[in-house]
Every structure is written in C-alpha cells, then in structure tokens.
Amino acid sequence: MTRVGVITFPGTLDDVDAARAVRLAGRDGAAEAVPLWHADADLRGVDAVVVPGGFSYGDYLRAGAIARFAPVMGEVVRAARRGMPVLGICNGFQILCESGLLPGALVRNAGLHFVCRDQWLRVENNATAWTSRYERGAEILVPLKNMEGRYVADAATLDELEGEGRVVFRYVVDEPEPGQALKRHLGVDSPNGALNHIAGITDPTGRIVGLMPHPEHAIDALTGPSDDGLGMFLSVLDALVAA
Amino acid sequence: MARVVVDVMPKQEILDPQGQAVANALPRLGFDGVTSVRQGKHFELEVDDSVDDATLAKIAETFLANPVIEDWVVRRVDA
C-alpha cells in the first residue's frame, strides 16, 4: 500500500481534506493517508508528503517562515532531495518556497483582499509526479483562497521556470484589450497579480510541486465545484506504483 | 546587553500594494505632497554580548527577511 503523509502544523486547516483526497484517490485500498506532526522529526516511512494549506504558526513574520524550521520540515527537505514526491498547497506552497525546495516567493495579493473563489487553471506541464493524469492544456476548476497568493521571482528565475517548462499551472485570465496590459498585474483580471499568471510550479525533477489553489477541495461534486483536483492525487499514486 | 534594530523592506522591484494603499489614502486625509510610500518591518532585538555581527546578519538573512523579496539592514543602537 502506498503511504502518503499529510503534515499538521499549529494553524493548519486543510490537512483533513488533503487526507480525504488521498483516501479517495486510493479507494480500492491502494493508498493510506498518514498524519505527520510538525514537532516530530519523523516521516513514518511515507512514500510522498502533502504540505497542506492553512495558517501555520499564525502566518507570523511571513507565511511559511516559521513552519520552515519545524522539525518535520527538516526531514521533508532531506527526503525531497532524495526524490520523494512532495506537494505544497497554498500555505504548503509558501512553506516549500521558504524552505528553498521551490524558487520564488508568495506575497500579498495585488488587490490587498483575501481572495476566495472557484478559479480556472490551465495545466501547463503534465510530466510531473503530481499532474500526469491531466492533458496538457486542460483547464480545471478548483477553489482559490488566500491573502498572500501573488507569485514573484526575479527575472532570471522566471526565465528559467518558463524555459524549462516548470510552470505547472497558470490562472486562466481574460486577455486584456490592447493598451490594458498593466491591468493584468494590478489585480483586475488576475486573482492576485502573480507574475506570468503563475499558480503553481515544479522543481527541476518534476517531483516537488507547489500551487496556491486547492485541488484537495475539488475531489467530488458534493463538496467542491468539480472533481478536477482528484487527478493530482491519482497522479502521484501512479508515479509511486511505477517507481 | 545591546539593542539591535533590523529593518526589512520589500525590494524596489517588488510591487508594494500596502505602501501604495497608504500613499493613496494620504490625500484623502488632507495630507498632500507625499509622492510615494513603501511599507516594511522594524524589529528590535535585545541581545547579550555573545551575539556577534555575523550571527545577527544570519538571523536577518535566514529568518527575519526573505532575501528573495526583501532587503534588510542590521544596526546596533544605544540602549
């Protein structure tokens, strides 16, 4: 059986939904969700880790800045560098960036509002451990809910991400009229002003993925706007079985 | 014992919507002539004599600031 760890920090909100997504993806008993505690430097033998969303340590200092130093994160960084698949969702993405597992940073939404809405994303890279179940170019609908969701990185990092196809998800945004280009980065069309409309990225190996929107909230029609998010959890089970 | 101040500011190239919001509010409050505001963080640390400048720099760079998006300055001040 494939074991997928789900970390709980003080202030984590979405660990329960992430664990449910793992169980639903492995509904024939193929996968087990293993709870991991922030204070334990122990991954309990899991095959992959989900760093879920919420407000770890109250988001004090910066979102993810304190969680990065939690004992469990030292183990996650070590395992990730050995090739273990890791998914960071929302606060989890912020933590992976603060940890240095993914480049760039997430800063305050350009519009200064907490954004909470169902958001269309385009799958730009289906070669990662977490996105193989999608068609490249597919558009999926998942909830987005955050205050610090604007992805930024320096120009060299952005060039590297784009050049290597490491942008995994992009917000689907209406193209502005000619002359309105500025609006795209001022939160008018974009949910948060993220550079290049980046919603999620991967590391060079395709095994570490982070995204701001919440696939674990879109796994069945009863509780989400779609079941489009389930593909991420099915994908990693495929990757682990194939390994 | 010494007092140490660490100032952390968003890098110039990073959009600072909070600073812009403050700048935009000033004319509405009757304060004219402020052309730009940038908002950052100010930390005051009380440290004992065993904490050297290299350690303070490490604290600022690895924890108080995120160098991807922020610049930082450490200075010792008279208590």
Automatic annotation (TrEMBL), chain A:
Catalytic activity, reaction form: N(2)-formyl-N(1)-(5-phospho-beta-D-ribosyl)glycinamide + L-glutamine + ATP + H2O = 2-formamido-N(1)-(5-O-phospho-beta-D-ribosyl)acetamidine + L-glutamate + ADP + phosphate + H(+); L-glutamine + H2O = L-glutamate + NH4(+)
Q: Which Gene3D superfamilies match?
A: 3.40.50.880
UniProt pathway annotation: Purine metabolism; IMP biosynthesis via de novo pathway; 5-amino-1-(5-phospho-D-ribosyl)imidazole from N(2)-formyl-N(1)-(5-phospho-D-ribosyl)glycinamide: step 1/2
GO terms for MF: ATP binding; glutaminase activity; phosphoribosylformylglycinamidine synthase activity
Keyword field: ATP-binding, Cytoplasm, Glutamine amidotransferase, Hydrolase, Ligase, Nucleotide-binding, Purine biosynthesis
Q: Which InterPro entries match?
A: Class_I_gatase-like (IPR029062), PRibForGlyAmidine_synth_PurQ (IPR010075)
Q: Which domain of life is it from?
A: Bacteria
Q: Which residues form the signal peptide?
A: none
EC numbers listed for it are 6.3.5.3, 3.5.1.2
- Tell whether Cytoplasm is among the UniProt keywords: yes
Q: Which residues does the Swiss-Prot or TrEMBL record annotate as the active site?
A: C90 (nucleophile), H214, E216
Q: Show the PROSITE patterns listed in the entry.
A: GATASE_TYPE_1 (PS51273)
Question: Which GO biological process categories is it annotated with?
Answer: 'de novo' IMP biosynthetic process
Which SUPFAM superfamilies does its entry note?
Answer: Class I glutamine amidotransferase-like
Q: Name one GO cellular component term.
A: cytoplasm
A Pfam family that the UniProt record links to this protein = GATase_5
Localisation = Cytoplasm
Q: Where is this protein primarily located?
A: cytoplasm
Q: Record's NCBIfam families?
A: FGAM_synth_I, PRK03619.1
Q: How does it assemble?
A: Part of the FGAM synthase complex composed of 1 PurL, 1 PurQ and 2 PurS subunits.
Task: Cite the HAMAP family for this sequence.
Answer: PurQ
| PANTHER family hit by this protein | PHOSPHORIBOSYLFORMYLGLYCINAMIDINE SYNTHASE SUBUNIT PURQ (PTHR47552)
Q: Function, please?
A: Part of the phosphoribosylformylglycinamidine synthase complex involved in the purines biosynthetic pathway. Catalyzes the ATP-dependent conversion of formylglycinamide ribonucleotide (FGAR) and glutamine to yield formylglycinamidine ribonucleotide (FGAM) and glutamate. The FGAM synthase complex is composed of three subunits. PurQ produces an ammonia molecule by converting glutamine to glutamate. PurL transfers the ammonia molecule to FGAR to form FGAM in an ATP-dependent manner.
Please state what the protein is called.
Answer: Phosphoribosylformylglycinamidine synthase subunit PurQ
The top of its lineage is:
Bacteria, Bacillati, Actinomycetota, Actinomycetes, Pseudonocardiales
UniProtKB/TrEMBL annotation, chain B:
Top-level lineage group: Bacteria
Pathway in which this enzyme or protein is active: Purine metabolism; IMP biosynthesis via de novo pathway; 5-amino-1-(5-phospho-D-ribosyl)imidazole from N(2)-formyl-N(1)-(5-phospho-D-ribosyl)glycinamide: step 1/2
Where does it reside? Cytoplasm
**Family per record:** Belongs to the PurS family.
Q: A single GO BP annotation from the record?
A: 'de novo' IMP biosynthetic process
User: What do we know about how this protein assembles, alone or with others?
Assistant: Part of the FGAM synthase complex composed of 1 PurL, 1 PurQ and 2 PurS subunits.
Give a yes or no for keyword Nucleotide-binding in this entry: yes
Know the name of this protein? Phosphoribosylformylglycinamidine synthase subunit PurS
Isomerase as UniProt keyword: no
Q: Which organism is it from?
A: Streptoalloteichus hindustanus
Q: Which reaction does it catalyse?
A: N(2)-formyl-N(1)-(5-phospho-beta-D-ribosyl)glycinamide + L-glutamine + ATP + H2O = 2-formamido-N(1)-(5-O-phospho-beta-D-ribosyl)acetamidine + L-glutamate + ADP + phosphate + H(+)
Enzyme nomenclature, EC number: 6.3.5.3
